[in-house]
Amino acid sequence: MLVLSRKLNETIRIGDDIVIRVVDIKGETVRLGIEAPKSIEILRGELITSISETNTEAIQLDASLFTKLSKKL
């Protein structure tokens, strides 16, 4: 893992076409701006975790319903 310190308006470049810029700093919160091609999907880490947990719960629920339905048939 690469760890960098950046100040307001400083950037980090990833490859030739992704730029991450520190846009604002308030207390312990840092706002970042990300410039990237539209073809690159950018998602927050906690959103991915939430989606993964929801999908896992849905699979378990589906398996439970399937078992109940199978027993009735």
From TrEMBL:
Recorded GO CC terms: cytosol
Subcellular localization: Cytoplasm
Any Gene Ontology biological process: negative regulation of translational initiation
SUPFAM superfamilies per UniProt: CsrA-like
Keywords: Bacterial flagellum biogenesis, Cytoplasm, Repressor, RNA-binding, Translation regulation
Xref: Gene3D superfamilies: Translational regulator CsrA
GO molecular function: mRNA 5'-UTR binding
Chief location bin: cytoplasm
Functional note: A translational regulator that binds mRNA to regulate translation initiation and/or mRNA stability. Usually binds in the 5'-UTR at or near the Shine-Dalgarno sequence preventing ribosome-binding, thus repressing translation. Its main target seems to be the major flagellin gene, while its function is anatagonized by FliW.
Family named by the database record: Belongs to the CsrA/RsmA family.
Assembly with partners or alone: Homodimer; the beta-strands of each monomer intercalate to form a hydrophobic core, while the alpha-helices form wings that extend away from the core.
Name of the protein: Translational regulator CsrA
